[in-house]
Here is the input.
Amino acid sequence: MSDNNTTTFSPNNRIVLTFLMSLLAFSIMLGNAVVIIAFVVDKNLRHRSNYFFLNLAISDFLVGMISIPLYIPHIMFNWNFGSKICTFWLIIDYLLCTTSVYNIVLISYDRYQSVSNAVSYRAQHTKILRTVVMMMGIWVLAFLVHGPVILVSESWKNGKTYCEPGFLSEWYILVITSFLEFLVPVFSVAYFNMYIYLSILKRGHLSARQSHTRFSSVSSSNCGHSCRFIRAASSGPKEAVPSFCLEKQGRKSSFFFSLRTQMNNSAVTSKMGSLCHSCSVVLHQREHLELLRARKLARSLAILLGVFVVCWAPYSLFTFIRSIYHSDQHSKTVEYEVTFWLQWFNSLINPFLYPLCHKHFQKTFLKILCIKKQSVPMHS
Here is the structure.
């Protein structure tokens, strides 16, 4: 990058970079289009949380369809936007990126509501109008963060061929926009996800403890019944022997009977012991599975938050550092462009981190892609 904000790539590098940028735009459109088509095709997906996935997919799809295709000729071939196209591109780009961020916050808030207020959350599944209002409110709020500032700022008109908003040179505006666009979403998503993880972990421990208490009470009563049964079986009535000839035979029969009784009692006792042991193992396995589930959820939530921070923190930090210098000293470096493209790369990752992780979406995706197994007719 040169100091006058124009690119100085060689022809070969320019072709390669243009191809990679176009591939990224196409991948973003394809990944999010599959989510949108799945929502339209399968009516079973049309409930509250999936509407927010749809809203996220729409904003990310438009990033690949509008923001990147307009930016490629501008940055690669020095196409001068002009004032009107530049204003349009800036508003659309900042609007779509901020909407994508706020949709992630909305999805995390929806998960938080499903855990903290499960009863009222299930009752709100049928309130589609309220869900649509929340979806539209995200777009309005995202526009208010940057839209008015971009419309008021006109410093990009002062002989500059590179399209960028004028507020990048004002550090106090960048502090406000970074706070609303990055810091608030990061802390909100972190709080919601941490609450979800702690709630599920606490619920798993409580469920395992209650199951263990119920099993202990039931097993102790069963052991008592079994012991009484064994004692009753072992203490049979003693009958008198009328003759000496039958006394020896009766003595042998009594000996074999008591031997069989002891063997049966030991078999019953061993079975009860093995049953108690197996139930104890099942309880430990259940508690272990709950802990594994909580850890898996924590890992997935940490990945979501980590990807979001990695994609958005560099640009917010870099623009704030650039605002400290005088506007005449601004230059588009490679590092700045990398942080700029990381925001768009987040639109490619979002479909794989959110809707594509759900089993209902996965089944619909398989139907759309014609991967569903079909029965092969048998020929005689």
User: Anything to note?
Assistant: Confidence is low (pLDDT under 50) at residues 1-7, 223-249, 372-380.
